[in-house]
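Reopening this ticket.

The earlier resolution said the output was attached, but the attachment link was broken on my side. Pasting everything inline this time so it's all in one place.
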Amino acid sequence: MKMIIDTDPGVDDAIAIALAHALPEINLIGLTTVFGNTRVDQSSRNARFLLDMLGSDAPVAEGAAKPWNDYPFEPSAWVHGPEGLGDLAEVPQIGKNHPLPAAEFLVEMARQHKGELVICAIAPLTNIADALALDPEFADNLGKLVIMGGNLHCPGNITEYAEANIYHDPNAADAVFASNLKTVMVGLDVTLQTLLVPEDFAALAASAPTTGGFINRISEFYLKFYKEVANLDGCPMHDAAAILACSDPDWFGHETTGLKVSSDGDNIGATLADTSRPNVQVATKIDAKAALSKLKSALSHLH
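Inline output:
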């Protein structure tokens, strides 16, 4: 499976990128970066750093620096750390970005790999919406879009109503759901069922000292946030769940509905059922035990 991850790394993004690299059924042909957990320049730097650590030569194409319509945005430093990777104060600049901007890169790759390419979007959906605006054939060329974001039957995680990735650019997300992209939404309805606990990260550090050790280190900041804010003894496997929805779709149960995103009022960023819209597969069930087991096994075999 040819995959591009659209990302804003981010602790759980780092885990998802490592998982995609580790799975033999996924051919990671690039990362596209966007604002979100971090500023877009930090996202690109972190993406290049992570790929170098993993030994991947996938390119990084930098995308949107801000949301559509000048919607206000602040990086999520209190969740992921000041540079996006836990308590790391400095992340080295390694390599350079791909010459094409993210939206152009996505359009070109979808054209080259017509019907085959899967985009796993684990960040605000600005780059995806920009690609739709750039090329009227993008939706037909793309094989599938799998999103980590949204919430249909449960509360949000950044407000009572909204999940963070959708909330950070509600207008772009709404444009994606209005399109005829073949879309799967893996949101809080399932990701909150997949808790990684400190012992899981310690085991990773023991079995994969370089990558697992790094993930163990950056997870401490993330785990602390979830303990203080949600009183959880672990952190949800948000972004990695979307990767597994690509590799192991049978582990997920879905509802089929159109979606719209609220763009004003108290519930701004909420993902709402709308039967007048094109259908989206919304994940509502997950085999959490199988998902967590595959994640831990795959990452334990990294260096």
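Reporter confirms the inline version is readable. The longest strand covers residues 252-261. The chain has one domain: 2-300.
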